[in-house]
Design a protein that fits this description.
The protein is an alpha/beta fold. 33% of the residues lie in helices and 16% in strands. It contains six helices and seven strands, in the order βαβαβαβββαααβ. Strands 3-2-1-4-6-5-7 form a seven-stranded mixed sheet, with helices on both faces.
Length: 208
């Protein structure tokens, strides 16, 4: 039994919907849950600032969903220097708060496998491996300010309930990580690696 938790702003979701539907939802008879929001100041004037939520629900047919009016989360209490400004760090915190809220839409233990995916990711040639504990994309992302091997892609993950619960709860540990300098909260790609390695364990990851 498989669940798909879609997170993030539903910008250009229609472009990616066919691939997600074909390669995950239909292929594995997946229950869908959505945690998102209806308006983003970041995309004002882009044509992507007001997604048609009724159409999203009609197409995805989620068992349960949460569309908040805006992307919000309690702000970080800044105590140390970060690579990027505080506003950017709080944007990352809002992202992971939305992921955390997504996990509250379902009982994770009712499922054998839970998949977390952003709505703007096109998934192709996906082969689910339900016996694995925790799976991340093989492609390790290393943008300009990251060293190769020091970052994980944060668009997609899947695994068993025990490990996915910890993954969804990354938001709950961000202040602690910041206070102890265990990761730069303003740089998402390295932040997720430091979180997973510390709180989940790099030894349980399969890169696929």
């Amino acid at each position: 039994k498989t669940a798909l938790v879609l997170t993030g702003y539903m910008r250009n979701w229609e472009e990616h919907f066919p691939n997600i539907k074909t390669n995950i939802i239909d292929k594995y008879s997946t229950d869908v849950f959505i945690s998102s929001y209806t308006y983003s100041e970041l995309y004002v004037g882009s044509g992507l600032d007001k997604p048609d939520i009724d159409k999203v629900i009609e197409k995805y047919k989620p068992k349960k969903y949460l569309f908040r009016e805006t992307e919000t989360a309690p702000k970080l209490k800044v105590k140390s220097k970060m690579l990027y400004p505080e506003d950017w760090a709080n944007r990352i915190i809002r992202q992971w708060y939305g992921v955390y809220l997504g996990s509250k839409l379902l009982d994770l233990n009712e499922y054998d496998v839970i998949i977390k995916c952003r709505s703007d990711l096109s998934v192709r040639n996906f082969e689910l491996k339900p016996d694995l504990d925790f799976v991340l994309p093989l492609w390790k992302y290393h943008p300009g300010n990251c060293k190769i091997g020091d970052s994980y892609l944060d668009f997609f993950a899947y695994g068993k309930p025990f490990y996915m619960k910890k993954y969804f709860e990354m938001y709950c540990k961000l202040q602690e990580m910041h206070d102890n300098n265990w990761g730069d909260v303003s740089l998402s790609e390295t932040l997720i690696k430091y979180y997973i390695d510390r709180y989940i364990g790099s030894d349980v990851i399969t890169f696929d």
